[in-house]
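Hi R.,

Here's the chain you asked about this morning:
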Amino acid sequence: MENINHGYGRDLDLNLLRVFVVVAEEGSLTRAASRLYVTQPAVSASMRRLATFVGAELITRQGRGVALTTRGAELLAAARAHLTPLIAAATAAPRFDPKLSTATIRFGLADGLESVILPRLIAELRAEAPRMQFIVLPVQFRTVEESLLSSKIDFAVTVADELPKSILRQPLTAHPSGPKAFVCLYDARFTRLPRPLTERAYFTQEHIVVSYAGDTRGVVEDALGKARTVRVSVHSFGYIADLIEGSPLVATVPSLLAGHLIRARPHLRAVPVPFSLEGAQLELLWSRATDDDPAGRFIRDVVANVVGSLEAKSAKPLARSGAVNRAR
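And here is the predicted structure, written out as tokens:
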């Protein structure tokens, strides 16, 4: 029997040990059944299965109840030693201290957000979680689903289309669509745009577009079905400010990015586009499988606070940009 049990130890139903401990504590199959919310025959069957597995009788009848055999007493001591910490571990609330955490967090940022969000985000995280490690990867709406589901990243900050229910999402920006979602960015020394910007004036400009497909179509062409006069097409918003500054070219960019660029470059201005562009809402995305991770919750809260404060801050240079336009 000893050799057989050794070979089939992996088949032990640990719930049998739980039933056995309750029987031992109650000294009665009937009272044990009541405590476990099962029938007395079910308790008897569990005890027979455990005795067969162990290869020895564990209880014996004594009066109206039961008593442990010598082998049963040995098993009870061993079972309690292991079951008690297992139950405690299963029922204990998760403990997380960001100051002590050494977790490695992998997050994806949409194109153009690195310079906007990352400096402030890392500064906040270094203050709150100085021992954590962060790995930043680029994502965009075509790749974010695969990156999250394959665990390449723990969460992402980007725009996204339809996603499966296994990915959770939290809006981060206040203007998911409409003329406030995107603005037309330009160098006021080389370009004069009316305010409010008219559609005719918009389409007479020479544009830079960001195209991940490597063509001259951008968000405006997809939304309106009208082509702009495109002089330059790039694959990243990271080039936009350098190309606009010192040239008559204009670019249509998200408001959050525009506010950041105007703060850093005093000659740049922005005016809301004269039409609504859907799908511009910036979101925080993460896998449902990691929703209860305390480190993940901490990071998501920090990200939401950082983006919210940056959006409010970006509105100020955009408002000043509008005041300059009106003065002209």
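One quick note: Confidence is low (pLDDT under 50) at residues 1-9, 323-328.

Cheers,
M.
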